[in-house]
Amino acid sequence: MSFSGTVKLELEERTGSARHCQIAELSAILMNCGIWLQEEAEPGVLRISTENESVARKCFTLLRKTYNIESVISMHDNFTGKRGKVYLIEIAGSGAAVDILQGTKLVVAGDNGTLILQDHSLILQKDCCKRAFLRGAFLSSGSISDPNKGYHFELVFPAEEKAELLRRVLIGFHMDARIVMRKKSYVVYVKEGAQIVDLLGLMGAHRAVMELENIRILKEMRNSVNRKVNCETANINKTVNAAVRSMEDIRYIQRTIGFESLGENLAEMAELRLQYPEATLKELGMMLDPQVGKSGVNHRLRKLSMIAGSLRENEEELL
């Protein structure tokens, strides 16, 4: 099962203890999965359809808890021709269905029976209700990527108004939520790993939080090790390149003017470097008599490089 599916299974188990939180979560699910069917001279029917079994079970539970409605979940072939099944819950009879719409503050928008949230302030009065609403929205229209591959949390809506409402809810929890158009849908997304961890915690997916945090820690450790290895590799390459250039300079001096034209200290340094090309600066300093520190060795090698540079310039001028 995908990480997103695991999160939804966990959220299916989480239901707010207060009725107002239960109604807020139900409102989000109905807003995304519900439509109002109305035929002439017939009572209206509230239909909830979803391809996710967890959403159907959660909706069934919330209807029973909030309105004492013992609805029935039926399973059908996917209407869109896709593989898999569609789970349906239908509440017929104007009384019960209208009560649910009034309680969840949803109204019918347009001829296709789409539901939108009319009064945000009543449904989203408290932070606990906002968390429940967010949980319902994620269950019915959200997904989260595999954290081993990357961090991406999104909610998909067919209408901009619904996307903007969820974006404002997320911003209220200090999330950097943005909206992007994807085909004909509006996608609200969050990409920062730490914020996604906070989001899972807000919705009540505590097991998922632990799993995601463990993955984040391992990734950060690997990244830290890689950075150190890259840094050490760069330092080694720098040291090797400097040693190679120093050897070339010393051999050039030896070919052109000879070590006898150098001062005693520089001549001794040049001979030692040629004799021990893989020795460190500290090791070279300890071979000298009297011994010299790393900075002293480095100073003498730089002096030899400057002499070689001057000799090359003179050679070029003669040519």
Please provide a written account of the structure.
This protein has about 325 residues and is an alpha+beta fold. The chain folds into two domains: about 5-205, Endonuclease I-creI (Roll); about 225-319, no CATH class. It has helices at about 5-15, 20-35, 55-65, 95-105, 120-125, 125-140, 160-170, 195-205, 205-255, 265-275, 280-285, 295-319, and strands spanning about 35, 45-50, 75, 85-90, 105-110, 115, 140-145, 155, 180, 185-190. Helix 8 (about 195-205) packs antiparallel against helix 9. The N and C termini lie far apart (about 75 Å).
What's the quick description here?
The chain is built from twelve helices and ten strands.
How many alpha or pi helices?
Answer: 12
Shape: rod-shaped
**Strand count:** 10
User: What order do the strands of the largest sheet run in, or round the barrel if closed?
Assistant: 1-2-4-3
**Share of helical residues:** 55-70%
Full CATH superfamily name of the largest domain: Homing endonucleases
Q: Based on helices, strands and strand pairing, what is the structural class?
A: alpha+beta
Could you give the order of the helices and strands? HHEEHEEHEEHHEEHEEHHHHH
pLDDT averaged residue by residue: 86
CATH fold name of the largest domain, please? Endonuclease I-creI
How many domains make up the coordinates?
Answer: 2
Strand count, sense and barrel status of the largest sheet are: 4 strands, antiparallel
